[in-house]
Design goal:
By secondary structure, the chain is of the alpha/beta class. 28% of the residues lie in helices and 11% in strands. It binds zinc ion.
């Protein structure tokens, strides 16, 4: 496993694996004096792969839409929504400018995730999957609030409702007999970040006593033993 960081570090989560800092690089065209755009996390991903047949997990800790300098989170070509707020001082901008700029960050994150999926899809020698979630939402002027971090008991939905996204390669779906209709039925439920850890363990077929199937979003939606049995039988064989 490797942890690639373009945010404020792993806070010791990655102590026992390799942690690579991308946030303080100066690589062009991604970085300026303040920060780097998230696409830097996709550089040379092939180098993180083990020989075919050996499982690996790559964490991309994105900077995402973190403000207040939203305009620094994306390249100028992603400024579809204008006028922007080209300042870290939100009081210098109108609510519309702030929202436009925030929406541009979302558009850029979509692009970064699409590129990550393109890469996963291109690695036909692996059964690939991606799981994405935001750490929190953001207030952009609703109820007179901005940014995030309001105490949980009073935080508005804008700060506490976050997207989660999963992408599974066709080969992954086939080899686990993954059932999307089962998974999408779960989509209507209210879930929380508590599910993230166990869903990641389930998707990666990690066997550990701390796994709780009740907090795995996709538990029961695939044949959980299929892939495991196969990899135990032939640990070095490339996928069929
Ligand atoms: Zn955050």
């Amino acid at each position: 496993m490797v942890w690639r960081d373009n945010n404020t570090g792993s806070k010791s989560i990655a102590d026992r694996v390799i942690e690579e800092d991308f946030a303080h690089r100066q690589d062009q065209p991604w970085c300026n004096s303040d920060s780097c755009h998230d696409e830097i996390l996709l550089e040379n991903l092939d180098l993180e792969l083990k020989p075919a047949g050996v499982d690996t997990v790559i964490v991309l800790h994105m900077l995402g839409s973190h403000g207040p300098a939203y305009y620094q989170r994306y390249p100028p070509s992603f400024a579809a929504f204008k006028p922007e707020c080209r300042s870290g001082e939100l009081s210098a901008c109108t609510p519309d400018e702030i929202r436009n700029t925030y929406d541009n960050t979302i558009r850029y994150t979509d692009h970064v995730l699409a590129r990550a999926i393109d890469w996963l899809e291109s690695r036909k020698d692996y059964r690939t999957a991606m799981l994405f979630a935001s750490d929190h939402g953001e207030s952009t002027g609703e109820h007179g609030l901005f940014l995030h971090g309001a105490p949980m008991f009073m935080a508005p939905d804008e700060q506490t409702h976050v997207p989660v996204l999963a992408w599974l390669s066709p080969d992954y779906q086939q080899s686990t007999r993954f059932d999307w209709s089962c998974a999408s039925r779960r989509g209507g439920r209210e879930v929380s970040h508590d599910y993230w850890f166990h869903t990641a363990l389930g998707l990666s077929r990690t066997r550990t006593s701390v796994y709780r199937s009740g907090l795995d979003l996709f538990y029961g939606c695939s044949d959980s033993d299929l892939m495991q049995a196969e990899s135990e039988g032939s640990p070095t064989a490339p996928p069929a």
